[in-house]
Design goal:
The structure is a single chain. By secondary structure, the chain is mainly alpha-helical. The protein folds into two domains: 85 residues, Winged helix-like DNA-binding domain superfamily/Winged helix DNA-binding domain (Arc Repressor Mutant, subunit A); 150 residues, GntR ligand-binding domain-like (Four Helix Bundle (Hemerythrin (Met), subunit A), Up-down Bundle). Helices cover 78% and strands 4% of the residues. It has a three-stranded antiparallel β-sheet with strand order 1-3-2. The chain is globular, with a radius of gyration of 21 Å. 28% of the residues are buried. Pfam families: FCD, GntR. One of its GO terms (molecular function) is DNA binding. This is Bacterial regulatory s, gntR family protein. InterPro entries: GntR_C (IPR011711), TF_FadR/GntR_C (IPR008920), Tscrpt_reg_HTH_GntR (IPR000524), WH-like_DNA-bd_sf (IPR036388), WH_DNA-bd_sf (IPR036390).
């Protein structure tokens, strides 16, 4: 009996360090992802491993593991000769990716209206009110996190695992752009209004209406992103003119 207990303890004990390492890995990935989404690390920025390790207080192994995850998500590019840098989407990529995403969001909304539970609807409404409170306080990160949670929950309520995986994979590439699309007050006001319409459509179980709102919501974000990029290019070109 004693030997059995001892063997069980030997099997359990080694699992503890692995769990801690996994938590560290997830923390580093989440932290770097947030820095990219919130434009602390802007597109094209070269990532200095030594500086990041010092800033985060970690060794290079967990950092490099995190960079591989973010590269798989399309958030950073890793070159054998140049190292890692934050990915920068071309105008065509932005246009096409938002176009596809608008279709995925529309499908999610239509299916969610058929399948959402009262509990899920209540959770989305609570997130909506919390999101509006963040907007009133001019808290863009807080607003965005709740905004994204609403879109994720609508997608989950669609009850389609293939749709969900496709949506999650594609949305990772757009998160930073979706965040920056609310920098202009008028765009932010418009986005908040769209979310009011989303909640109303969900409550009415009006799939077509919600699909239309979500599709246009994403296309408006695409236009806002491309417009902001064009203005930035004009500013950069102005001194040379």
């Amino acid at each position: 009996m004693q030997n059995t207990t001892s063997n069980q303890e030997e099997k359990v004990a080694p699992l503890v360090p692995k769990l801690e390492r996994q938590r560290l890995h997830d923390t580093v990935v989440d932290h770097l992802r947030n820095l990219i989404v919130e434009a602390v690390l802007t597109p094209g920025t070269k990532l200095n491993e030594r500086e990041l390790c010092e800033t985060l207080g970690i060794s290079r192994t967990p950092l490099r593991e995190a960079l591989k995850v973010l590269a798989a998500e399309g958030l950073i590019d890793i070159s054998p000769n140049r190292g890692a840098s934050v990915s920068k989407m071309s105008e065509t990529e932005i246009w096409e990716t938002f176009e596809l995403m608008s279709g995925l969001e529309a499908m999610s909304g239509e299916l969610a209206c058929e399948r959402i539970t009262p509990v899920e609807l209540a959770e989305i409404k609570a997130l909506h009110y919390a999101m509006l409170a963040c907007k009133a306080q001019n808290d863009l990160p807080g607003y965005y996190s709740r905004n994204q949670a609403i879109h994720d929950k609508i997608n989950e309520a669609a009850r389609n695992s293939v749709l969900q995986q496709t949506y999650l994979g594609l949305n990772r590439r757009l998160q930073a752009l979706r965040f920056r699309s609310n920098f202009q007050p008028t765009k932010w006001d418009s986005a908040a209004h769209d979310h009011d319409e989303m909640v109303k459509a969900l409550e009415a179980r009006d799939g077509k209406r919600l699909a239309d709102v979500l599709r246009q919501h994403l296309l408006d974000k695409r236009d806002a992103v491309l417009s902001a990029a064009a203005l930035l290019d004009e500013k950069r070109a102005a001194p040379a003119a």
